[in-house]
Automatic annotation (TrEMBL):
GO MF terms, alphabetically ordered: ATP binding; ATP hydrolysis activity; transmembrane transporter activity
Domain Transport-associated OB type: 34-109
GO cellular-component term (any): ATP-binding cassette (ABC) transporter complex, substrate-binding subunit-containing
SUPFAM superfamilies named in the record: MOP-like
Domain of life: Bacteria
Pfam families assigned: TOBE_2
Protein name: TOBE domain-containing protein
Amino acid sequence: ETDFVIDNSLKVKVTEGKMKMLREQGYVNKEIVLGIRPEDIHDELLFLEASQSTAFTTKIEVAELLGAESILYMKLGDQDFAARVDARHTFSPGDQIKLAFDMNKAHFFDSQTEQRIR
C-alpha cells in the first residue's frame, strides 16, 4: 500500500492493485482525482477499526434524513463530499464524525482529461 494525498489535508493508503495500475499508466507523483461514491464512505465501528489507514474526522455541514439512511455533506480541505450512512444514528450540522474510505471501491481520474484511469 502507498499513500495518496487528498487536497494536502489527508493521506490515505491505496491498495497495491490500484497502485500497480497507477504506476503502469504513468500516474505516480502526478495530480489525479479520487472518486468515491457516498455509499463507499463508512462510519461503522467495525469498518473504521479495519480501515485505520483511510480513516479521518470531519465536520458535518448538512445532514439529510432519508428514511433508513442519512446523506451527510461535509468538506475535506476544500473538497465537498457526501457519505451515505445508517439513519439509526442522529447527526446534526456541526457534529464531528469519523469516517473511512473503502479504497477497494475508489476510482481515479486524470486531472487534465477527467477520464477514468483504468
